[in-house]
Amino acid sequence: MLLNPTVIIEVLSPNTESDDRGKKFQRYREIDTLRDYVLIAQDEARIERFARQESGLWQLSEATGLAAEVALPSIGCVLRLAEVYEVVEWH
Fold it and tell me: What's the pLDDT at 5?
């Protein structure tokens, strides 16, 4: 159960990706405290960040490649893709 989350991070899988992007994100947008919704790809070095703007609209930014990083100022954190994917063995 989530109580007042600021950030939610989901690791995408082929079986859950459409739900993570659709109904689940729709429900999450109703959480007043949520500022960032982060989706991490499994099959490539890619992270998508949906950030709630002051207007209430959600803005998408995308980071791709192991040299990229995603800032999460709402919690004072930076996700470096090289670190996120450090133990991933690419096939």
Answer: 95
